Amino acid sequence: MLRLALGVALVVTLLGCPKNTPSSTVAGTDEEKMDMLSAQLEELHTRADVKCPDWCTLKPRACDLSKQTCDIAGRLPDRAEFQKKCVAANEECARWSDGCASCGSH
What we know:
Blueprint: H1 2-16, E1 24-25, E2 28-29, H2 30-45, H3 52-75, H4 80-102
Antiparallel strand pairs: 1-2
Helix pairs in contact: 2-3, 2-4, 3-4
C-alpha cells in the first residue's frame, strides 16, 4: 500500500510541475542556433584572404546566415541581443554584396 501511495505521489508531482523549457529548433535552442550563426558570420567577417571572386562566391553564404539570424530574431522580438545580432548580420550581408558588386560580378 505504501508503494502505491508513493507511486501515485510521484506521478502527481511529475505531472503537476510543468517544466520551463527553452524555445527549441531542430538544431537546438534558439540561443545555441544564434551562437552558431554568429560564429559562422564572424568567421566570414575576419577572413583576410578574400580575393575578388571570393566576394561573390561567399555572398550567398553570408546572406543566408543573415536570413537565419533574423528569422530567429523575428520569432523573439523581445530579445534585444537577438535584434542586435540581426542588424549586424544584415550589415555583414551588405558588406559581402558590396564587395561582390565592386568586383563587377553579380
